[in-house]
């Protein structure tokens, strides 16, 4: 089983900036989201030992993973394959500016995979498939993955063999956990935050 988590809200999320491989800190809401997800995961895993917490190497994911790991008395492992999509030259740019300058780039799904010097959809799929293939088979798999919005979408899409359009249109909440088990995906929401 894999529990997939997106990092908590960041300053760039709040500003509607594309983060990609650049980083910004978790906001106060982001820290509360990370703690809520950690509590939910502690309940879901029943405090059983042996769960691996694997994180993207970017700070926002590592910070979220550290909160989760503390709740589970686990260590954080990093894996670069869980890193967010690189927007290339668009990393760190305001989404509104890019949408105005490149109105056709974001398409129906609202996501672009052809930013100048950015990463392609196929490249993200390949690294997610490689990461999944490196894990123990189900049911021995006991992994909590902390990743990102686009990367998490693609990971779920690869796992469930979704078509591209369905993959990129999935939700990416920062206060929920996705359970990937037996070829299916289930969403488990945290209690609402104040």
Describe the structure in your own words.
- The protein is an alpha/beta fold and 194 residues long.
- It has one domain: 3-Layer(aba) Sandwich (Rossmann fold), CATH 3.40.50.
- The protein is 38% helix and 15% strand.
- The protein is built from 7 helices and 6 strands.
- A 6-stranded mixed β-sheet has the order 3-2-4-1-5-6, with helices on both faces.
- Strand 2, helix 3 and strand 3 form a beta-alpha-beta unit.
- The chain starts with a strand and ends in a 5-residue tail after the last strand.
Within CATH, the superfamily carries the name Phosphoglycerate mutase-like
What is the count of distinct domains? 1
Query: How much helical structure, as a percent, in the residues?
Result: 25-40%
Oligomer: single chain
Summarize the structure.
38% of the residues lie in helices and 15% in strands.
Comma- or semicolon-separated keywords:
194 residues, alpha/beta, Rossmann fold, 15% strand, globular
Write the layout of secondary structure elements.
Elements (H helix, E strand, L loop, with lengths): L1 E5 L4 H5 L12 H18 L6 E4 L3 H14 L3 E3 L16 H7 L19 H14 L8 E5 L1 H11 L4 H5 L7 E6 L2 E6 L5
Parallel strand pairs: 1-4, 2-3, 2-4
Antiparallel strand pairs: 1-5, 5-6
Helix pairs in contact: 2-3, 5-6
């Amino acid at each position: 089983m894999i529990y997939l988590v997106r990092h908590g809200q960041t300053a760039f999320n709040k500003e509607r900036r594309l983060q990609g491989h650049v980083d910004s800190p978790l906001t106060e809401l982001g820290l509360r989201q990370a703690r809520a997800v950690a509590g939910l995961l502690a309940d879901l895993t029943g405090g059983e030992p042996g769960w691996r917490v694997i994180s993207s190497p970017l700070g926002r994911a590592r910070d979220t993973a550290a909160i989760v790991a503390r709740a589970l008395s686990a260590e954080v492992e990093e894996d670069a394959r869980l890193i967010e999509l690189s927007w290339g030259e668009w990393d760190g740019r305001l989404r509104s500016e890019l949408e105005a300058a490149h109105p056709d780039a974001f398409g129906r799904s609202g996501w672009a995979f052809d930013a100048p010097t950015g990463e392609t959809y196929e490249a993200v799929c390949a690294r997610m498939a490689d990461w999944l293939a490196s894990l123990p088979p189900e049911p021995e798999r006991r992994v909590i993955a902390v990743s990102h919005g686009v990367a998490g979408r693609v990971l779920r899409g690869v796992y469930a063999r979704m078509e591209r359009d369905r993959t990129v249109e999935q939700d990416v909440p920062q206060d929920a956990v996705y359970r990937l088990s037996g070829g299916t995906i289930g969403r488990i929401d945290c209690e609402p935050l104040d």
